[in-house]
């Protein structure tokens, strides 16, 4: 393109040039540059977009400035703003930023401004190790932890006494084997492998309770603490359910394609083995129904609310942790309600009504009923509030997915094995 | 204790304190001090003053301390080059350390220090590290080559690092391969013509093998590299697709999208009846759907790309409509994208569902989203004819809500529905008219005015309605003013008896009281038209309008193809060509989808015999210019949902006016009122007077009619007439037309700059993008005086051929940027290759013979030049004027054979044989050249010269 100084320069292979961390109040509290220092004034464009978006969630992920692109994610009330100078795949950058956030979480227990500030040197070392001149270098938590030790209270005490460091002195063993995700020489006295099948229902139900859209997002989380180099095979009773899957790099895709079994040498510790998606085209069981009526009167600045929740397709299991959340229109000042079960709370600032029900008793259906008072003189709200449902069902994968067996090869000992199932509501909405 | 202690400062002065600590004898104290320095760096404090002290800490056995110092060095070495040299010895030493971690760290850090003096010392260690026994070091060194190339490309080439890097593609370790590929593709981008990444079936095979084993990031590099490969046939294409498909199940969404890109591109080559083609289509849907359950930022990028994929291959996601349904807590940027895709997927089969959803959205809280949902209903009506009735009734329901912005949007889209289905839904006009008073946005007002004007005969009080708008005429936006002018003229033509006064009022408002040239011009044209020939006026103004097309916001097909090749990039997020983003190579190598096997649509061997040289450019360039012109206005706003609303239709009206035999008006009686139509007899006297007396206005009108542009200049070689390169409407009033000429060995670009805006333009400058023959301005653009409104300046810009070179598509394409005090504008134009034919292009006969034989026959191209009635001598003379030299002539059996040579500015020789048969107006031209891609362009020059 012509060179009248609006285009990006194509001279560098740097993918991510700089990273700025910004908190919700707009304070820039950390910057890291992988090439030359870019003035933090570049973030003004971000602040502008931030202001325009009103809600932090609505800040567009890609922002164009005259000389750079800013690609950002919003995690744990922190904006991770990266500065890009060349044409790079934005997903690449976004994935990487998520990986950074996850690494912080993993290292410090939580990813927050204070933990980052408390561990600023480790953060800096991590960022340097994760990205070399814009190329991701080591992003697997197993490898990173060998290069840079995570802080523990004990270690920082020992370090101060003995003067030892939190940097690994040797090359991580897994770094260049064909299984980069596993370190060698793992040893446990109790060998155990646990798998959690977690399914989330994303659904939209309309006024009458008909399903507009429903799908299941499933993951299998693993906690594998096995010595040596175990080679595992996990098989399902009904693998046909899984036609849309994403695997951890350790899974041998060929065997999945030909035999529908998951064959892998696991990373050490916690990891996500796979995620799957059961689409809207399959019939998705909806565990609860909601009968609701929220109406506002033309006059008198008031309205009525009446919500009842009941079980629908629960496969004989108990629905727990039931919470109904309603985003009320702005003009709703307060709610005077009566709950037959659980407690409710209306926050007049955020306009969110939360009804925490708890366990669903099919014999005595929970009901929330009463009146809403509106700002006097304000017109009747135009929009209809939507309900968000939260719930949990133990020992059930709502899709019906069942693990058949787990076999281990390559090692002689007998491991403990366990599989747990749980179903939760994901983005589960009821329109009114 | 946490690291936050490093942020505390003392009163004494932080730097002073740190300096003392850095020079402490105690190792631990030193390390703590360096950590404090790093902590300051992270919050953007300038601690560069400590450079020498920190560098002193570098020689240590403590790996952590060493790392910290290295971190510091990378940040500040650039600003302290002389100091940085102090570190060199340690670097070189560390590159030989026993610990591979330290070797890798040293070579990596050295590469990051962009200081020439350090770079020189880097070569030897780097060479060793590239061949290091430890793959960790090798993979770090591979990236380092790319870094070094960025600092000093020549050095990298001289040192032979590129070859070493190429060898690393065959490395036994997949991560080394991935990094080598990444480094090579980066380097290749700044060297588009170098054959660095020589992709052939063998290397492709290696890449595919490495693909299975390397890290997720490496997979992205490899997939992106694969995407630039052109398989030899459909079988190779299929086998690559088969090996790439497993990547669709990767947990990393960037890997998935890169894999989708490869598949979308290579699929193009597979025959559609192949079973595998169908299988592949089915395999693409689930991963795309899965991307939508990821984090919102990822969803956004995925949605922008899905938008492209849906336009290219709607069949992939046609059953997945529901996943695009909007959840109320989706971020707004996700909501808007989903909505757009919903409309694209809407069909008769799912329209009921879609409409129900849209109606739901129209009652949401977010105003932008509600507006877009209302527009979407209108788009559904236009797209799916069967649904039009339901859409209209949905819109009427929404109008009943009386929510102001909903009503306004609804009116805008109903206007489009009227355009699409004339005489079907006009019964709703009454309802619309009820809401007249609540309209306060220009677009809605303009739409309503259009409706009133268009259906004036059915609305009893149309004149009253329009009159009410007229009261505040000067406060309206241009859009509304123009619309009102046209609507009242329509009304007058339909009900002339009652509305004379009204039309006179609006015409005088438009022509006399307005500063807006568009409005004035349009006013004058109507006035003349009405006064001269009301019947013709009726034919023109009330002409039947073409129906609007069903999907107006589709991306233009060639751009779409290019964007499909760039799935996953920024270009795909902005839906703008990649050239819009990156200066240099990647942008301009327009990627094309490969041709499908076995189908007739081969992109090779274009039918050159048919295409005249003049016809290609105008077809392509305006659209491209359009896109380029939009660059500065890049924003996240999706393309406006609706149709060429009022504005374009008006423009068309204006065009019709021009073609409508009005020329006589111009030359003729501008001054007098006698020619005014009877109904207009009492036109204000000031108006004709101003017309007659103000040359500026006449000039403005003259320009309007002078669409043809300037006249060719007969000096030197043939010069084509000027054509419009940059339309005024795309360039804030600046119109540029031009042509190219070669005069006495000097290449010139003749430009006419016309100011069609209202304010004076100054500060002109021009610049070219890199191009095939290195054309570049030899001096600044000489526009000495400011360009006042309606003024045209002709300038000749001398060009040199010493600019940077990059192959363009087509070869003779030139991308130009012109700047003035208002903005920067871009356009593309194509120059005749004869511009580059040099004066000393006459080859020696012997050399000619030898060269002709020497060039392989594959490089020969044959063309027909039709309808030339010249004998061989005249033709030969004509050609010589353009530096095409005849070296020899032979006559065999009534056939003249002319042997000719041409030399281009860059030293390329073109040899030609032209056969002329007496009595046959068709010449046969055979062209041979070592660079065969120039042949069609040389042929174009032949045709141009001989036919003019």
TrEMBL record, chain A:
Residues of the MHD domain: 190-431
PROSITE patterns: CLAT_ADAPTOR_M_1, MHD
Cited SUPFAM superfamilies: Second domain of Mu2 adaptin subunit (ap50) of ap2 adaptor, SNARE-like
Cross-referenced CDD domains: AP3_Mu_N
GO BP: intracellular protein transport; vesicle-mediated transport
Stored InterPro entries: Adaptor_comp_med_subunit (IPR050431), AP2_Mu_C_sf (IPR036168), AP_mu_sigma_su (IPR022775), Clathrin_mu (IPR001392), Clathrin_mu_CS (IPR018240), Longin-like_dom_sf (IPR011012), MHD (IPR028565)
The protein's name: AP-3 complex subunit mu-1
Organism: Cyprinus carpio carpio
Automatic annotation (TrEMBL), chain B:
Segments forming domain Clathrin adaptor alpha/beta/gamma-adaptin appendage Ig-like subdomain: 718-828
Pfam families noted in UniProt: Adaptin_N, Alpha_adaptinC2, B2-adapt-app_C
GO terms, molecular function: clathrin binding
Keywords carried by this UniProt record: Acetylation, Membrane, Protein transport, Transport
A GO BP annotation: vesicle-mediated transport
Region annotation (Disordered) ranges: 581-623
Residues annotated as domain Beta-adaptin appendage C-terminal subdomain: 837-947
Location (main, coarse): membrane
Membrane topology label: Peripheral membrane protein
InterPro entries listed in its UniProt record: AP_beta (IPR026739), AP_complex_bsu_1_2_4 (IPR016342), ARM-like (IPR011989), ARM-type_fold (IPR016024), Armadillo (IPR000225), B-adaptin_app_sub_C (IPR015151), Clathrin/coatomer_adapt-like_N (IPR002553), Clathrin_a/b/g-adaptin_app_Ig (IPR008152)
GO-annotated cellular components: clathrin adaptor complex; cytoplasmic vesicle; endomembrane system
Localization (cell): Endomembrane system
Family annotation (SUPFAM superfamilies): ARM repeat, Clathrin adaptor appendage domain, Subdomain of clathrin and coatomer appendage domain
Family the entry assigns: Belongs to the adaptor complexes large subunit family.
UniProt-listed PANTHER family: ADAPTOR COMPLEX SUBUNIT BETA FAMILY MEMBER
Name used for this protein in its record: AP complex subunit beta
């Amino acid at each position: 393109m012509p060179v009248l100084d609006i285009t990006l320069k194509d001279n560098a292979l740097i993918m991510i040039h700089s990273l700025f961390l910004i908190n919700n109040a707009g304070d820039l509290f950390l910057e890291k540059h992988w090439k030359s220092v870019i003035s933090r004034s570049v973030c003004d464009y971000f602040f502008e977009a931030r202001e325009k978006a009103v809600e932090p969630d609505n800040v567009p992920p890609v922002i164009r400035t005259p000389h750079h692109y800013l690609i950002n994610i919003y995690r744990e009330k922190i904006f991770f703003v990266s500065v890009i100078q060349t044409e790079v795949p934005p997903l690449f950058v976004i994935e990487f930023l998520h990986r950074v956030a996850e690494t912080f979480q993993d290292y410090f227990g939580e990813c927050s401004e204070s933990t980052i500030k408390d561990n600023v040197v480790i953060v800096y070392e991590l960022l340097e190790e994760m990205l070399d001149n814009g190329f991701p270098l080591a992003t697997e938590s197993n490898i990173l932890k060998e290069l840079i030790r995570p802080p523990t209270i004990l270690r920082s005490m020992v370090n101060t006494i003995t003067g030892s460091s939190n940097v690994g002195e040797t090359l991580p063993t897994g770094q260049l084997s064909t299984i980069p995700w596993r370190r060698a020489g793992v040893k446990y006295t109790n060998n155990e492998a646990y798998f959690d099948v977690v399914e989330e229902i994303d659904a939209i139900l309309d006024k009458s309770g008909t399903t507009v859209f429903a799908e299941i997002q499933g993951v299998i989380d693993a906690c594998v603490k096995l010595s040596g180099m175990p080679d595992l095979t996990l098989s399902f009773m009904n693998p046909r359910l899984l036609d849309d899957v994403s695997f951890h790099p350790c899974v041998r895709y060929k065997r999945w394609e030909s035999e529908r079994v998951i064959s892998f040498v696991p990373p050490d510790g916690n990891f996500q083995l796979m995620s799957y998606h059961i689409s809207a085209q399959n019939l998705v069981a909806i565990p609860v129904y909601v009968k609701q009526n929220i109406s506002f009167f033309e006059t008198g600045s008031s309205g009525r609310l009446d919500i009842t929740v009941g079980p629908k397709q629960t496969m004989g299991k108990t629905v727990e942790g039931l919470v109904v959340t309603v985003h009320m229109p702005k003009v709703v000042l307060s709610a005077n309600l009566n709950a037959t079960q659980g407690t409710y709370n209306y926050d007049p600032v955020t306009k969110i009504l939360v009804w925490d029900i708890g366990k669903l008793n099919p014999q005595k259906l929970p009901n929330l009923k009463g009146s809403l008072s509106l700002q006097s003189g304000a017109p009747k709200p135009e929009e209809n509030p939507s309900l968000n449902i939260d719930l949990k069902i133990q020992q059930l994968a709502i899709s019906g997915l069942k693990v058949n067996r787990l076999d281990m090869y390559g090692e002689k000992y007998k491991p403990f094995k366990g599989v747990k199932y749980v179903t939760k509501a994901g983005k589960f909405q009821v329109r009114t | 204790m946490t690291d936050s202690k490093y942020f505390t400062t003392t009163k004494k002065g932080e730097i002073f304190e740190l300096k003392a600590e850095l020079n402490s004898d105690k190792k631990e104290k030193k390390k703590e001090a360096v950590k404090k320095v790093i902590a300051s760096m992270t919050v953007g404090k300038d601690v560069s003053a400590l450079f020498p002290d920190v560098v002193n800490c570098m020689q240590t056995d403590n790996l952590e301390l060493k790392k910290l110092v290295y971190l510091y060095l990378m940040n500040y070495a650039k600003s302290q080059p002389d100091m940085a040299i102090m570190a060199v010895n340690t670097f070189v030493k560390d590159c030989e350390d026993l610990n591979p971690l330290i070797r890798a760290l040293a070579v990596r850090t050295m590469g990051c220090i962009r200081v020439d003096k350090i770079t020189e010392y880097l070569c030897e260690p780097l060479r060793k590290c590239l061949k290091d026994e430890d793959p960790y070091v090798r993979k770090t060194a591979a990236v380092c080559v790319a870094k070094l190339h960025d600092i000093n490309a020549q050095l990298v080439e001289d040192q032979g690092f590129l070859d070493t890097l190429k060898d690393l593609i065959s490395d036994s370790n997949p991560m080394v391969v991935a990094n080598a590929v990444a480094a090579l593709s980066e380097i290749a981008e700044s060297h588009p013509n170098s054959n660095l990444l020589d992709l052939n079936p063998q290397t492709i095979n290696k890449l595919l093998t490495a693909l299975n084993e390397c890290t997720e990031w490496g997979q992205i590099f490899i997939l992106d590299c694969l995407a630039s490969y052109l398989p030899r046939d459909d079988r190779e294409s299929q086998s690559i697709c088969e090996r790439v498909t497993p990547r669709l199940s990767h947990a990393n969404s960037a890997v998935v999208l890169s894999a989708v890109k490869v598949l979308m591109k290579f699929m193009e080559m597979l025959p559609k009846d192949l079973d595998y083609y169908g299988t592949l289509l089915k395999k693409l849907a689930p991963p795309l759907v899965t991307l939508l359950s990821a984090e919102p930022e990822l969803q956004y990028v995925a949605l922008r790309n899905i938008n492209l994929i849906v336009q290219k291959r709607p069949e992939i996601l046609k059953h997945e409509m529901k996943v695009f349904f909007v959840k109320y807590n989706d971020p707004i940027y996700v909501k808007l994208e989903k909505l757009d895709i919903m409309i694209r997927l809407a069909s008769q089969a799912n329209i009921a569902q879609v409409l129900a959803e849209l109606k739901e959205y129209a009652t949401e809280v977010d105003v932008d989203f509600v507006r877009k949902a209302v527009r979407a209903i209108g788009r559904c009506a236009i797209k799916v004819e069967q649904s039009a009735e339901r859409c209209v009734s949905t819109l009427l329901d929404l109008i009943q809500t009386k929510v102001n912005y909903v009503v306004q949007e609804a009116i805008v889209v109903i206007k489009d529905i009227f355009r699409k289905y004339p005489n079907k839904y006009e019964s709703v006009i009454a309802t619309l008219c009820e809401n007249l008073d609540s309209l306060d946005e220009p677009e809605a007002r303009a739409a309503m005015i259009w409706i009133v004007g268009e259906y004036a005969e059915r609305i009893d009080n149309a004149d009253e309605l329009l009159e009410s708008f007229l009261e505040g005429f000067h406060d309206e936006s241009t859009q509304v003013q123009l619309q009102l002018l046209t609507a009242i003229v329509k009304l007058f033509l339909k009900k002339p008896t009652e509305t004379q006064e009204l039309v006179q009022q609006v015409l005088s408002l438009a022509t006399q009281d307005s500063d807006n040239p568009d409005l004035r011009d349009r006013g004058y044209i109507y006035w003349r038209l009405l006064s001269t020939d009301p019947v013709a006026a009726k034919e023109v103004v009330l002409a039947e309008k073409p129906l609007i097309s069903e999907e107006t916001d589709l991306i233009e097909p060639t751009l779409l193809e290019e964007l499909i090749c760039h799935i996953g990039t920024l270009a795909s997020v902005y839906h703008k060509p990649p050239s819009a983003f990156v200066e240099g190579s990647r942008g301009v190598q327009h990627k094309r989808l490969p041709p499908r096997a076995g189908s007739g649509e081969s992109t090779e061997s274009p039918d050159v015999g048919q295409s005249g040289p003049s016809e290609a450019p105008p077809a392509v360039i305006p659209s491209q210019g359009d896109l380029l012109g939009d660059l500065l206005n890049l924003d996240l706003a999706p393309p406006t949902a609706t149709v060429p609303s009022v504005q374009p239709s008006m423009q068309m009206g204006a065009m019709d006016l021009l073609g409508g035999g009005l020329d006589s008006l111009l030359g003729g009686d501008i001054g007098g009122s006698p020619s005014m139509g009877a109904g207009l007899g009492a036109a204000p006297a000031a108006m004709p007077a101003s017309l007659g007396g103000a040359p500026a206005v006449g000039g403005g009108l003259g320009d309007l009619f002078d669409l043809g542009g300037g006249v060719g200049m007969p000096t030197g070689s043939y010069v084509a007439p000027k054509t419009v390169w940059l339309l005024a409407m795309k360039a804030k009033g600046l119109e540029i037309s031009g042509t190219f000429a070669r005069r006495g060995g000097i290449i010139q670009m003749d430009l006419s700059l016309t100011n069609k805006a209202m304010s004076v333009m100054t500060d002109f400058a021009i610049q070219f993008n890199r191009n095939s023959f290195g054309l570049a301005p030899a001096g600044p653009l000489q526009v000495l005086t400011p360009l006042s409104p309606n003024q045209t300046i002709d300038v000749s810009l001398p060009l040199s051929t010493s600019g940077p070179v990059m192959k363009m598509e087509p070869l003779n394409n030139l991308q130009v940027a012109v700047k003035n005090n208002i903005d920067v504008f871009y356009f593309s134009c194509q120059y005749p290759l004869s511009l580059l034919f040099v004066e000393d292009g006459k080859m020696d006969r012997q050399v000619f013979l030898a060269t002709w034989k020497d060039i392989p026959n594959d490089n020969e191209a044959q063309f027909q030049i039709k309808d030339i009635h010249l004998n061989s001598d005249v033709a030969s003379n004509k050609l010589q004027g353009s530096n095409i030299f005849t070296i020899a002539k032979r006559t065999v059996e009534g056939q003249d054979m002319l042997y000719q040579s041409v030399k281009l500015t860059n030293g390329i020789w073109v040899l030609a044989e032209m056969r002329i048969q007496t009595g046959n107006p068709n010449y046969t031209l055979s062209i041979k050249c070592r660079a065969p891609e120039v042949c069609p362009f040389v042929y174009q020059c032949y045709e141009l010269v001989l036919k003019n």
